[in-house]
Specification:
Blueprint lengths: L2 H5 L2 E8 L7 H14 L10 H9 L5 E9 L12 E9 L12 H5 L9 E3 L18 H13 L3 E5 L5 E4 L3 E6 L2 E5 L9 H10 L3 E4 L3 H6 L2 E6 L3 E4 L2
Parallel strand pairs: 4-5, 8-9
Antiparallel strand pairs: 1-2, 2-3, 5-6, 7-8, 7-10, 10-11
Length: about 240
């Protein structure tokens, strides 16, 4: 058994493979590098697009590839070393994938897939700590949130920090539109900085503003978008 299993000492990355390509390869690399830094882990291999593409495409199928990175070696709470090991798995997945592609974000998002549903807010505040801004192998907070979502019979569950600011949806980042303006939760609010959100900020930073978002902003928005690495951007309201 490895340290990822014994202590949750690691993180994971889920990667969409579509038509034999990895659409968000570079932002996945960025997330992995950020996580390695946060977890104080030191890989003996190069973390770059070649690595991500090589692992993701090794399954030779379109779907979702999950890579688990964990601290190698032994030790109890205190690890004996900081080297990195990983494993990976595959699952089929065929939902539509959409990313904006022109400089006109508003016009492009009119073409985004639409999924309507009911909303709720998870009452247990998410701790605003760095190690929970990546996809930690210690995911019990999200497991319990998912059970709450099922109990409440809602389609989307928003996560808030201790100040009552929304930082993400259970399995995605949030982009809201009010008139011609677009907003995401502040990157200091404690949410996971996902691959699709990173893509949007890299390509549309000029059109997107960070702000503290509360549920009233969701209710009054002209549109709310879900942003996740498996499906890209879709409209949920």
């Amino acid at each position: 058994m490895n340290r990822g299993y014994l202590y949750g000492d690691g993180f994971f990355e889920t990667i969409r493979v579509l038509n034999g390509e990895v659409p968000l390869a570079q932002t996945h690399v960025d997330r992995i590098l950020d996580a390695l830094s946060i977890y104080q882990m030191e890989p003996a291999f190069e973390v770059d697009e070649d690595l991500v593409r090589g692992i993701a495409l090794s399954h030779q199928k379109d779907g979702i590839v999950r890579i688990n990175f964990f601290r190698d070696g032994s030790g109890t709470y205190l690890p004996e070393q900081n080297s990195v090991a990983f494993d990976h798995s595959f699952r089929p997945f065929d939902e539509e994938f959409f990313l904006p592609s022109s400089l006109d974000l508003a016009a492009d998002l009119l073409q985004a897939p639409m999924h309507k549903g009911t909303f709720a807010v998870y009452p247990e505040a998410k701790p605003n700590v760095r190690w929970m801004t990546v996809k930690s192998l210690s995911s019990i907070y999200y497991v319990l949130a998912a059970k709450y979502k099922q109990e409440q019979q809602v389609d989307y569950l928003f996560i808030q920090n201790a100040k009552g600011h929304l930082c993400e949806e259970l399995i995605s980042n949030i982009l809201i539109q009010k008139g011609e303006d677009f907003f995401i939760p502040s990157l200091t609010s404690g949410g996971v900085n996902g691959a699709t959100q990173r893509f949007l900020l890299r390509n549309y930073r000029f059109a997107i503003t960070e702000k503290n978002i509360i549920m009233e902003d969701i209710e009054n928005a002209d549109a709310v978008y879900s942003c996740k690495g498996s499906t890209g951007v879709c409209r949920i309201s």
